[in-house]
């Protein structure tokens, strides 16, 4: 079975699931087994809130535990046996791909196989046969190649929780010299919106409320707070477009494909006066994980034919 996982700072995504990257450890079995992982005698409730930002995701076992959770969810969703073999695919930003590839593969592909754990009280025994890493953003184009057809140059903007990864494709091929990673992800936008609401109204709104307003969805909220959040969405859009221009990407000259959790915010925040050449928006937040899985399947198929 091939499973693609997008290890985001804000959320972990697979083909069928998206859940917060937060994780809470318990010494003993917690009051509920919902989203509870038991591994090596320790309990972790996965998908709770947001964990502190780690510049190196391999600093602790959190992302490994979240990966096991993702695998269990996909096995359950697909109706597969809980004793099985898995090929795991994941993405890394192109800017640091070569530097991080070996270490992150070793982090996910541990020597002790099969991996035994319980998720929501159900036992799993999974043999991770292989781990393959691919550039983020490029994997999304595997799902939607129509966005780059006929375009000699396209800018991919992957707007994640903590970083915005910028990558230019020339004739469909990633240009390694034209990629940047900016620390301007959605967490910055959400935190600034919450702070502005607190300053101007005295209200303490939640991350979930801010996300819904920024996405244009309904929720019960003070109208002044809603207006402030919407204004911050436009301010964030302006800041990100300006940062992309400063990084050497002229969005008035080159079409862009925007994806990731923040793509909907930019879609709503862009104005005609911004003068952007052409913008495609992928609002499906699982597109990176789906693309990685598709590439992994193509790779496995080509190997089996040899």
Automatic annotation (TrEMBL):
This is Plasmid segregation actin-type ATPase ParM. Signal peptide: none annotated. It comes from [Clostridium] leptum DSM 753. Pfam families: ALP_N (PF17989). Residues 49-137 form the Actin-like protein N-terminal domain.
């Amino acid at each position: 079975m091939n499973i693609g996982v997008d290890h985001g700072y804000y959320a972990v995504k697979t083909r069928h699931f998206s859940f917060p990257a937060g994780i809470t450890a318990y010494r003993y079995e917690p009051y509920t087994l919902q989203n509870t992982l038991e591994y090596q005698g320790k309990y972790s409730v996965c998908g709770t809130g947001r964990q502190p930002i780690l510049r190196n995701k391999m600093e602790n076992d959190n992302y490994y535990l979240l990966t096991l959770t993702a695998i269990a969810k996909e096995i359950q969703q697909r109706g597969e046996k809980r004793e099985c073999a898995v090929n795991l695919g994941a993405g890394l930003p192109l800017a640091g791909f070569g530097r991080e590839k070996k270490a992150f593969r070793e982090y996910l592909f541990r020597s002790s196989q099969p991996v035994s754990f319980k998720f929501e009280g159900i036992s799993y025994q999974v043999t991770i046969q292989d781990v393959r890493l691919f550039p983020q953003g490029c994997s999304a184009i595997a799902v939607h190649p129509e966005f780059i057809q006929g375009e000699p140059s396209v800018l991919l903007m992957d707007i994640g929780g903590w970083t915005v990864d910028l990558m230019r494709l020339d004739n469909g091929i990633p240009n390694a010299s034209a990629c940047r990673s900016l620390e301007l992800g959605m967490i910055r936008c959400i935190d600034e919106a919450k702070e502005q609401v607190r300053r101007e109204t005295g209200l303490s709104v939640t991350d979930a409320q801010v996300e819904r307003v920024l996405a244009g969805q309904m929720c019960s909220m003070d109208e002044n707070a809603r207006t402030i959040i919407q204004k911050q969405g436009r301010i964030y859009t302006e800041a990100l477009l300006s940062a992309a221009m400063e990084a050497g990407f002229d969005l008035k000259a080159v079409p862009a494909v925007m994806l990731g959790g923040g793509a909907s915010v930019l879609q709503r925040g862009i104005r005609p006066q911004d003068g952007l050449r052409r913008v495609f928006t992928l609002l499906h937040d699982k597109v990176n994980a789906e693309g990685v899985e598709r590439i992994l399947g193509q790779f496995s198929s080509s190997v089996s034919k040899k």
